[in-house]
Design a protein that fits this description.
With 389 residues, the protein is of the alpha+beta class. It contains ten helices and 19 strands. 46% of the residues are buried.
Length: 389
């Protein structure tokens, strides 16, 4: 199958933000960028399949400054966070992270994010692509709450892969190995202020390093690369193949504001019994009562390897349009095409046969169980012992 889309140059200018690591990514071979949250984000260092193998076999470093943090501070910060999401946040203590959905007045998903409770009365919302800050400001300004909403000087890197714990230990010592999944720690690295968390978008062993002073961007990048050299570290872009395999969804592709939490399999994050009211509660109650009409499902697509889709591809069932492919890719480990599809609820059962209208023609597809590979959450004790020597 030929290329999905032609290649185009991207103009670099002051209207779009460069990350503190931008020059380093170019120096290390970044070949393509996209614009994500008004920020240049590397999308390729030349070979996405080789990047994939580095991610699943070794350790990789990603510039994800495009996850521009939305900071909520003030005496009523926790109350605003509760208003923004249907998930009950009372258990998210300082030093913890939670995955959250932000819902609008119609029950649609404004964005999905990792919430970091950095300090008392201080939260970071780490979102997908979209102007989340304006949504949060809009909710805050009419809330009557004593809060401030802004974008702090915070620039995250992701350290991802089975050997990520080795590199994190070389950088931060025992603290990195003792850090539990979805926990965070404020610290310094050679005088550079950072927050580290056990989070990430790879399905592999994961860390994120949030630089809290942009002037140290190049220095932090080189420090991490030097620490990772014994474990064959490689800079890569966020990897579509591995994220699809692991069931890690992408806002604007797999999730949009037209989707409600049940559509994308996240109804468990809608907790109507939480004491605090939240935006979209009435709409979500109505959706629950009426029943969900669509579902995001995993599919396996027949035929030659697909390099990916640059637009939603229509899906048919018995000659009728029933949905679209949100993302797809060829999995080197599975040796088959896999993807996510948004389909009518009647065609969402595992084993249902569909037809994907790909650019090279109609392709048979089958709804399947997901994820194809489960995420690595706990760092095994034997691995910790090996790392500590």
């Amino acid at each position: 199958m030929g290329k999905v889309a032609s290649s185009f140059d991207i103009s670099i200018g002051p209207r779009v933000r460069k990350s503190p690591f931008f020059d380093a990514t170019v120096r290390y071979g970044a070949r393509a960028f996209t614009i994500y949250n008004h920020t240049y984000m590397p999308t390729s260092y030349g070979d996405s399949v080789q990047e994939y193998w580095s991610l699943v076999n070794d350790v990789t470093l990603w510039d994800v400054t495009c996850q521009k943090q939305v900071q909520v501070t003030g005496p009523d910060a926790a109350k605003l966070i509760e208003m923004l999401s249907p998930r009950d946040m009372r258990g998210c203590d300082v030093g913890m992270c939670q995955y959250i959905l932000l819902t609008d007045e119609n029950g649609g998903i404004v964005n999905d994010a990792v919430l970091l409770h950095v300090e008392q009365d201080k939260y970071w919302i780490s979102p997908g692509d979209g102007d989340v800050i304006w949504w949060v400001k809009g909710v805050a300004i009419n809330s009557g709450l004593d809060v401030a909403v802004d974008e702090p000087d915070v620039s995250p890197l992701q350290l991802q892969g089975p050997k990520a714990p080795h590199v994190a230990y070389a950088l931060f010592g025992d603290a990195a190995l003792d850090l539990k999944y979805y926990r965070l720690l404020q610290t310094e690295l050679d005088g550079m202020p950072v927050v580290i968390s056990r989070t990430g978008w790879s399905g592999e062993h994961c860390y994120e390093i949030y630089l809290c002073d942009a002037q140290y961007g190049d220095r932090l990048w080189e420090t991490v690369m030097a620490a990772g050299k014994p474990w064959n570290i490689r800079p890569i872009a966020p990897n579509t193949i591995r994220s699809i395999e692991g069931g890690l969804l992408s806002y604007c592709s797999d999730i949009t504001v037209r989707d409600n939490p049940w559509t994308v399999g996240m109804g468990r994050f809608v907790q109507f019994d939480k004491p605090a009211d939240f935006v979209g509660k009435d709409a979500l109650l109505r959706i629950r009562e009426e029943g969900n009409q669509r579902s995001l499902v995993g599919v396996e697509i027949d035929g030659e390897p697909i390099p990916g889709n640059d637009a939603p591809w229509k899906i048919q069932h018995n000659g009728e349009n029933v949905g679209h492919i949100t993302r797809c890719a060829w999995s080197p480990r599975l040796e088959r095409n896999i993807g996510w599809a948004n389909v009518a609820i009647g065609q969402s059962t595992v084993g249902t046969t569909l037809t994907v209208m790909a650019p090279d023609g109609a392709r048979p597809a089958t709804v399947c169980k997901t994820p194809w590979f489960r995420s690595f959450i706990t760092i095994p004790d034997e691995l910790k012992a090996e790392i500590r020597g």
